[in-house]
Amino acid sequence: MTEAPLTTPRTTGVRIAHTADLDTATLKAARTLLYDVFDDMTAEDWEHALGGLHALVHEDGELIGHASVVQRRLLQDGRALRCGYVEGVGVRADRRGRGHGAALMAALEQVVHSAYDLGALGAADEAAAFYAARGWQLWRGRSWTLTPDGIRRTPDEDGCIYVLPTPSIPLDLDTDLTCDWRDGDVW
Fold first, then answer.
1. At CA 74, angle to CA 79 and CA 165, rounded to 5?
2. Are 69 and 111 in contact (CB under 8 A)?
3. How far is CA 106 from CA 79, 87, 91, 172, in A?
4. Label partner for 66 (CA 20 to 30 A): which of 22, 73, 106, 108?
C-alpha cells in the first residue's frame, strides 16, 4: 500500500452551521476568504451572508470555501414566496476546480429543497454556467425590489438572477420577480 502524496487535498467535507453557531474566528476567516475571492466585496455583501446557514469547506484545518443561504421573501405572480437566497459563494483561488464549489452548492441545494419554496441567487457572468449546470434557471422576466418608497425596477439585475425551482411551487420564469428590501445590493 502506498501513501498519497502530501499535495493531495485532505477535505473534511462540508460543514453546515447557522451563523449563531459559528465562533468569531470562523466568521472572520469566512469574511476574509470572501474579500479575497471578490474584488468588489462590501460590508453590506458580508452582512447579506449572515443570519442563515453557512456551508464551509476546510482543508488541512484552513477554511477554503464558503457559501450561505438566508431566508428572503420574493413576490411572483401575486404570491409571496419563502426563498432560500444563496450568498457569499467562494472558494480560495488555489483550490478551485477540485469540486469544492459543487460540494458547497449541493449542501445548500438540499436545504433549499427541504425548507423553501425556491432558491435564488444573483450570478456574476463568470459563474452563470456553473449554476446553470447544477439546474439553476435564469429568470427571464423583469426584476424589481420592494423599497421603503414602493416597488422599484432593478433593470441592472435582469439577466443575472437564477432560481432553483422546487416541486411544490410552479414558476413562470418570464413574469416579474420582486425581492424584499435590504441595504446595499438588493439582489
1. 85
2. yes
3. 27, 14, 14, 24
4. 73
Phi, psi of 15 (to 5 degrees): -105, 135
Q: How far apart are CA 61 and CA 157, in angstroms?
A: 37
Quick one: 150 exposed, middle or buried, by C-beta within 10 A (0-12, 13-18, 19+)?
exposed
pLDDT tens digit sequence for 1-20:
444 343 444 445 999 999 99
- List pLDDT tens digits, range 137-175: 999 999 999 999 999 999 999 999 999 999 989 999 999
**Separation between Cα atoms, residue 99 and residue 65, nearest integer Å:** 10
Q: Determine the Cα–Cα distance for residues 100 and 56; give it in Å rounded to an integer.
A: 9
Cβ contacts of residue 37 below 8 Å, gap of 6+?
90, 91, 92, 93
Q: Report the alpha-carbon distance of residue 148 to residue 135 in Å, rounded.
A: 33
Q: How do beta strands 161-165 and 53-59 pair?
A: unpaired
The grid coordinates listed for 175 are 413574469
Helix (H) or strand (E) holding 48: helix 43-48
Q: Residue 90: what residue type?
A: G
